[in-house]
Design a protein that fits this description.
The chain is of the alpha/beta class. It has helices at about 25-30, 40-50, 65-70, 90-95, 110-120, 155-165, 180-190, 195-200, 205-215, 230-235, 245; strands at about 5-10, 15-20, 80-85, 105, 125, 140-145, 170-180, 220-225, 260-270. About 35% of the residues lie in helices and about 20% in strands. The protein has a 7-stranded mixed beta sheet with strand order 5-4-3-6-7-9-8, with helices on both faces. It has a two-stranded antiparallel sheet with strand order 1-2. The radius of gyration is 18 Å and the shape is globular. The mean pLDDT is about 90. Bound molecules: zinc ion. Zinc ion binds next to helix 1.
Length: about 280
């Protein structure tokens, strides 16, 4: 995500303005109190990849879910893994390097699917909306999403979690990374990002996430990120030279409510309690 102030074009209407946001005020206000349609979201994220290739998750490895990767490494190598919103395929490529061969990757945008085919050619691909998964029940041992659910409209998050629980085999787990609302929301407000409701409409605190997952029969365990990600370092206000020491801050020692993002492993209940 781009945070430096510059002269730029609104990613929806093309109007030029100076600022740190992706949308002009008029486009941001248009969607402040309504759910953004899927076609508009797709248009926005494809325009984002085109306009900011150096900082988009499709083209750069900015947001590695380090703690999740450590958890994923413990899975049996023949695990059937689905990554939803696989972006540029950086995590999928890391999994493939570690010997996981049964990978299915989905994304919404044509730009991401093209990047996925180039970076992880041996995987299977599907263009799919995260709220409607085109797979049979119980066919995956692990489902992953990294920086996905915060982009979904709120009603879609519920459908998405229902779908994840459906496609997971009993005892399978959902490995998920998302911003911590308690830290991200005040940060966006302080930075004057008046369009954050458009690109992160569904953020969760640790407690809210635990509740949302539990509604779909998924029991959550938090895993701590050891350090700030490249994207988080780039967003820090203040002089750039401070980013090097910041990269070594042991943020994993912070309580979950104070961490910039949440990494969780949510395991599907095997007995009673399924929706
Ligand atoms: Zn606009």
């Amino acid at each position: 995500m781009v945070i430096d102030r510059s002269r730029r074009s609104c990613l929806l209407c093309g109007a030029t303005f100076t600022g740190r946001t992706f949308l002009c005020r008029a486009c941001a206000d248009q969607y402040r109190h309504q759910t953004v349609p899927l076609t508009v979201r797709k248009q926005f994220y494809e325009a984002l990849d085109e306009a900011y290739p150096a900082r988009s998750n499709t083209h750069g490895d900015w947001n590695v879910p380090v703690a999740l990767l450590r958890e994923l490494e413990r899975l049996p190598p023949d695990s059937r893994i689905l990554e939803i919103g696989a972006g540029g395929g950086f995590l999928a490529a890391a999994l493939q390097e570690r010997g996981f061969q049964r990978l299915v990757l989905t994304d919404l945008t044509a730009t991401s699917l093209a990047a996925l085919r180039a970076r992880v050619p041996a995987a299977l691909f599907a263009a799919a909306d995260a709220a409607r998964l085109p797979f049979r029940a119980g066919v995956f041992d692990a489902v992953i999403s990294s920086d996905l659910i915060e982009h979904l409209p709120r009603p879609d998050v519920e459908r998405h979690l229902h779908e994840v629980a459906r496609v997971l085999a009993p005892g399978g787990s959902y490995f998920l990374k998302t911003p911590n609302r308690l830290v991200a929301e005040p940060f966006y407000r302080l930075r004057g990002l008046y369009d954050w409701h458009f690109w992160h409409p569904s953020m969760f605190s640790p407690g809210e996430l635990r509740f949302a997952l539990a509604r779909h029969g998924l029991d959550m365990r938090l895993v701590a990120q050891p350090h700030l990600t490249g994207a988080q370092l780039a967003k820090l206000p203040g002089p750039r030279f401070l980013r090097t020491p910041a990269a070594h801050l042991p943020v994993g020692l912070l309580p979950a409510v104070a961490r910039p993002h949440l990494e969780v492993v949510a395991t599907r209940r095997t007995a009673r309690g399924l929706p």
